[in-house]
């Protein structure tokens, strides 16, 4: 199951991604991916090192994932939205090809920071494209978790990335700005049939909860109190989930059980992968590669686990 944490800058995406990843690790394998321009997830998780960034090995990733799919002639003609087809290498959550480091039972992967020499946001999008490729080729099942800490604001909606998840948690502080981002996201989510739930954060009073409820209604799933334990974590003190306030542990439980309860919809996943690939091909990729990339779509390929075993061997 895949989940992304999105929201306004500073709302708590990284904090809640890291807490959720640790919490979920007690229930199954977890990959946590830092896909933010400012890479903080490793720090908050207490990772001893930074793994090699996925954004720096896009060609190798493409080469690996295209396998012997005859519709993708080389890594250079594979773009972030190129969908898998027969012959593509489909991966599982524990695929060792993707560099990671282990911390607290979580496998951390990173896209890499926004470098000085990245000209314009488009370049950062190509780094995040590594995550899109990873998720497009991943066959995950119940009790396996991919947690992605996203860039602030509506950036993830600039690509198809936001349709690659089973659920999106929108972290919102009880402020007008916090709920403002929700409105923006709600529209995109509705247009693409993407499940989104609001997670309140830094709640200090019942009035804060009422405020959120008044603005987001039933989309408010749960909330985290303003936490002394999180502050201590931020100050670099030793931290375990046992230090967390009971209400906040309970909120983590709600996040996990809600994600677990989401039905997997591979048909929609495949349909949207193709939809976004066609969009990207027409908008820029055909021109960039100098070929009609819609020919990469394999009409016989079926997304999901049933054909993965048979499909990957071909
Ligand atoms: N429930 C909480 N209680 C106390 N402090 C919190 C809580 N949640 C987050 N914080 C603090 O708020 C600050 C911002 O949190 P965080 O870095 O997780 O936000 P973010 O959304 O990832 O920010 P950015 O947009 O910069 O990536 C941090 O100092 C963090 O420790
Ligand atoms: Mg962050």
Automatic annotation (TrEMBL):
GO terms for cellular component: cytoplasmic side of plasma membrane; cytosol. It comes from Thermobispora bispora (strain ATCC 19993 / DSM 43833 / CBS 139.67 / JCM 10125 / KCTC 9307 / NBRC 14880 / R51). One of its GO terms (molecular function) is ATP hydrolysis activity. It comes from the Bacteria. One of its GO terms (biological process) is negative regulation of cell division. The lineage of its organism: Bacteria, Bacillati, Actinomycetota, Actinomycetes, Streptosporangiales. This is CO dehydrogenase maturation factor-like protein. PANTHER family: ATP-BINDING PROTEIN (PTHR43384:SF15), SEPTUM SITE-DETERMINING PROTEIN MIND HOMOLOG, CHLOROPLASTIC-RELATED (PTHR43384). InterPro entries: P-loop_NTPase, ParA/MinD_ATPase.
């Amino acid at each position: 199951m895949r989940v992304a944490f999105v929201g306004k800058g500073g709302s708590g995406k990284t904090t809640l991604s890291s807490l959720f990843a640790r919490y979920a690790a007690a229930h199954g394998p977890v990959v946590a991916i830092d896909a933010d321009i400012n890479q903080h997830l490793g720090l908050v998780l207490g990772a001893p090192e930074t793994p090699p960034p996925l954004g720096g090995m896009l060609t190798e990733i493409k080469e690996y994932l295209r396998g012997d799919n005859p519709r993708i002639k080389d890594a250079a003609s594979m773009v972030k939205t190129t969908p898998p087809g027969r012959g593509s290498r489909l991966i599982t959550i524990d695929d060792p090809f993707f560099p990671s480091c282990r911390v607290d039972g979580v496998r951390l992967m990173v896209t890499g920071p926004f470098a000085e020499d990245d000209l314009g946001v488009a370049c950062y999008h190509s780094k995040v494209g590594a995550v899109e490729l990873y998720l497009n080729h991943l066959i995950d099942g119940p009790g396996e978790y991919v947690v992605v800490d996203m860039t602030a604001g509506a950036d993830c909606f600039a690509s198809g990335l936001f349709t690659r998840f089973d659920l999106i948690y929108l972290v919102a502080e009880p402020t007008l700005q916090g709920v403002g981002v929700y409105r923006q996201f709600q529209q995109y989510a509705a247009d693409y049939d993407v499940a989104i739930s609001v997670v309140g954060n830094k709640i200090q009073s019942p009035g804060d909860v009422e405020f959120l409820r008044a603005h987001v209604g039933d989309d408010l799933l749960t909330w985290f109190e303003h936490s002394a334990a999180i502050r201590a974590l931020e100050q670099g003190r030793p931290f375990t989930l046992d230090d967390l306030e009971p209400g906040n542990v309970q909120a983590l439980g709600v996040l996990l059980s809600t994600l677990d309860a989401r039905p997997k919809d591979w048909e929609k996943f495949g349909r949207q992968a193709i939809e976004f690939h066609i969009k990207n091909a027409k908008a820029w990729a055909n021109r960039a590669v100098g070929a009609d990339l819609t020919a990469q779509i394999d009409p016989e390929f079926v997304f999901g686990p049933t054909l993965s075993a048979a499909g990957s061997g071909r």
